[in-house]
Write a structure and sequence with these properties.
Length: 145
Amino acid sequence: MYVKQLANTMGVTQDTVRHYTRIKLLNPIRGERNGYQEYTAADQQRLKFIISARQLGFSIKDIQQIIAQSEQGQCPCPLTRQLIAKRLEETEQHFQETLKLRTRMQAAVKQWDKSPDGAVSADICSLIETFVDPISEVKNTKEAL
């Protein structure tokens, strides 16, 4: 099957297939008649694996490591467990930062709802410049105690 067929079958773009081919996660063969890249059932299975791994949050580098171990005849499961734990920790940190941002945004909406429009001459935007960060306020209050 060709790039377009593989992409359609797997529900990804042709550029996605080409990208994974360029970085050697997929290894199509060159057609003898026309020189086009032809993907096999093994490539389709590999792409399915890549898509599943990406949906779980594995990076391209992670996937390359997992595949390399497998191709060397080693069981990649211990590495996979280690990598997913690391990705989960990173995701949790990002999630906590996103929650803080959400809290700040909600506070800004609430504070700015009561504030008039118009900046004083030295201000760029008085709304932003006068914003009281509830997270910093809590932190400063705790430090003062």
